[in-house]
Amino acid sequence: MPYNRSSKEDEYFAKVEADKLRTLAEQHRREMEEAERDRLKEMHWMRCPKCGMGLEEIEFRGIKIDKCFTCGGMYFDEGEFDQVAGGEAPEGFLAGLKRIFSGGAS
Question: What is the extent of the structural domain holding 78?
């Protein structure tokens, strides 16, 4: 006597298969995003965001800052601006910039 699956069994197996495919697609998407982030990081590493030329590290007040000698831009890594502005009087120029960019009141 042949066994006939019920429609509930068909639904269950279809759901299990769909869940597997969804999980695989999500994993593939995450891997692709990670690969794209790595590619972009490598392509833009130590490049000026303004003109695209190479950045060089210079020392300013004991902190290494990235400087573009083509367009003159200076760029801070996370926390470096706070270090530069930290030793200044509360009403100084850099302290004012720090308040603006950190969301503090002026």
Answer: 56-101
> What's the number of domains the chain is made of?
2
**Dihedral sign, Cα of residue 56, residue 43, residue 79, residue 75:** positive
65: left (phi over 0), alpha (psi -120 to 50) or beta: beta
Q: What is the DSSP letter of 106?
A: -
User: What is the Cα–Cα distance from 30 to 41, expressed in whole angstroms?
Assistant: 16
pLDDT, tens digit, for every residue of 4-17? 667 888 899 999 99
Note whether residue 50 is domain-resident.
no
In this prediction, residue 106 carries a pLDDT of 46
Q: Phi, psi (5° rounding) for residue 54?
A: -70, 145
Instruction: With respect to residue 92, please indicate whether it lies within any of the assigned structural domains.
Output: yes
Which structure tokens are listed for 38?
């790595």
Residue 19: is its pLDDT beyond 90?
yes
Identify the DSSP state of 47.
B
- Give per-residue burial for 41-70: e unless 16+ CB within 10 Å, then b: eeeeeeebeeeeeebeeeeeeebebbbbee
